[in-house]
Design goal:
It contains four helices and nine strands, in the order βαββαββαβαβββ. By secondary structure, the chain is α+β, with helices and mostly antiparallel strands. Strands 2-6-5-4-7 form a five-stranded antiparallel sheet, covered by helices on one side. A four-stranded antiparallel sheet has the order 3-1-8-9, with helices on one face. The longest helix has 17 residues.
Amino acid sequence: MSETIRSFIAFDIDNELVLKRLSEVQNILINTGADLKLVKPQNIHVTLRFLGNISSPMVDFIHEEMKQIAFTPFEIELKSLGVFPSLKYARVVWAGIRKGADELMNIFNQLEPRLRSLGFKPDPKGFSPHLTIARVKTGRHKAELAKCVEDLADYEFGIIKADCLRLKKSVLTPKGPIYTTLREVCGG
């Protein structure tokens, strides 16, 4: 029996200044007293598609489909702070994407039919370009969290370069997930 691999396709954040700003905002969010599970800065990424559990042989099939995606490296401007699904019922705190959202949508739209041809079902949530920076565990101090998110709604995190689309492996551990790159396709 082959190993199953929990996986997703994403662009990594390689800009140290942007990671520092994301971490600073996470500290501000924690200081609201809200019950949050922060995403470790080194684990923050732009997810294009969560794949779930795949077989080892599927890695190469996905990589072959990723190679067919046409894109040139582009910039992503990270600006704004928000929550899903709403301020009243926050479950996820995210950093927004200004510039680069159209390019990400284009890559997603090329990728999605290729993944379906491999047997993946459409993502029921669709695609909304963002970076998850925290998950809300309970409603504790939700009013303080909502005010903080509103106050930081226009926060500028900076610009990252999206040059390599990566198929990532996610291993869940008690201390949080560990991500490793299985395959990558760099734009050119």
